[in-house]
Amino acid sequence: MYKLAFILSNAETFHWSDALFLPENEVWDCHTEGLIWDPDDIEDEENERPKAAIENQFMYTLSIQCIQLIVQNARKQKQNITEDELLEAFLFYYDNDAFIDFSNPLTDN
Question: Where is 86: in which H helix or E strand?
Fold first, then answer.
């Protein structure tokens, strides 16, 4: 398990086929613990989540490949991007299925 801030700051180090699982009933922030797992590598074919995700009440959130694109987009817009801004870009994408535009104040959360 990793903190969400670490996952976002180091997205490029994870394998493209992995996915992020986060708590179902929790507001996500930089300190939220998440699970990185290949969704094709599950123990029980009847469940769509790995055993560790089920035990921790984690849900599939996004693919690592998608998260890598979110981070790349955010870093192109802001050279010295903070963990909080990466989180903002991640949450914006998750909620809107679109990349955040840091130059547009209408996209601020």
Answer: helix 83-96
